[in-house]
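Appendix B, Record 12. Input sequence as logged:
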Amino acid sequence: QVQLVESGGGLVQAGGSLRLSCAASGRTFNVSVMGWFRQALGKEREFVASISWSGGSTYYADSVKGQFTISRDNTKNTVYLQMNSLKPEDTASYYCAATAPGFRWSQLASQRALNYDYWGQGTQVTVSS
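Logged structural output:
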């Protein structure tokens, strides 16, 4: 069983930055694809970014491309989401997710929430205008 714990959310003014962290328990972190999703109030959960086992491949939703950066440190069992130039429309609860061990990363597969077996509890990001 994998447990994911997000941190780093908060209130920030438009144009500011935040870095989210997601710490994972378990021994299989380094062979799990990791993803970030977000859900704004009254909207469906949407894909934000994903990263392959080694960190060598990443994929972003068009809405955050060039603005957010996903990374991972397998020695610390942690995945990060660096968010820059934040906008009010980035306000949402952000969720970290992990696939089952051995899942093969691809752009298409990694953006589907159904492919992730483990989810964190979410961290709130609020961007004021």
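The two ends are 40 Å apart (CA to CA).
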